[in-house]
Amino acid sequence: MSSSPQPTSNAAPVVRGATAKAILKLTWDYPVYQPETKEVTEGSTARSVQRALSREEAMKAIAGNDPRPLLVLRECKVCNGTDDALLKGGVDNEKTFLLARWFHCVKLPVDVMEEDHPFHNAFTLEQPEHLFVCSADGSNHDPLESDTSRVKLWESMKGVIAKEYKGKPDSSVKKIAKIIDKMDVIDERYLDLKASHDAILEKDGPDSRKLAKFVKEINKCESERLELSQEIEKATQLELKRQANAKEIADAAKKNEL
After folding, report:
1. Has domain 18-32+47-165 been given CATH number 3.30.700?
2. pTM above the 0.70 mark?
3. What HEC string does the chain produce?
4. Which pLDDT does position 249 carry in this prediction?
5. Where are the domains of the chain?
């Protein structure tokens, strides 16, 4: 008995508006370590000597003053300057971008593969992994590769979030996704209104009475976008355990002083 063919989806990919694209865009940091300069014996000129930091030193330099967990991407010659290591063609990547809102996203250069690069020891595998997620101090390190399934990547990201934040991101991710859908509707309406406004302006001039209606509706769209942006910021707010612990320690210290 022959098996029936599996159904295939012919659904067109979602085309996001400008506002949604901006929200879903990852913001990367590019840390640079400045080594101490040392005087050389053959002259008075000081020069810096590059060396690989210990993993603890490297993670401290990479994290900086940002207490959020880290998502670290090692650039390669193939995907240099892109987010290809996080993305897969034909696969929904929006959840990756939304989960990344709770991470300090860092890109390290191609030459981090060199053994004397300051951040070389940030990677734990003999053949350095393409990307990893971890806590700000380097603990809870989970090495990943560019061919890692999206499900595995999401599980790793949510696992670190659960360790570092009070609360889970699942409901926030769903809420933000719905808000982004609303943003697309507003963006489309805004573009239609703007096109009509500009057409009237060109045809009838700036004194046309018809313009006021469109200006009012355009302003309404902008106001709605602002409100939705504020909702996204509110939904993104999860309390870091590290910050909470630091506050508890500080409060306890104050009590001891009394």
Report:
1. no
2. yes
3. CCCCCCCCCCCCCCCCCHHHHHHCCCCCECCCCCCCEEECCCCCCEEECCCCCCHHHHHHHHHCCCCCCEEEEECCCCCCCCCHHHCCCCCCCHHHHHHHHHCEEEEECHHHHCCCCCCHHHCCCCCCCCEEEECCCCCCCEEECCCCCHHHHHHHHHHHHHHHEECCCHHHHHHHHHHHHHHHHHHHHHHHHHHHHHHHHHHHCCCCCCHHHHHHHHHHHHHHHHHHHHHHHHHHCCEEHHHHHHHHHHHHHHHHHC
4. 43
5. 18-32+47-165, 171-248
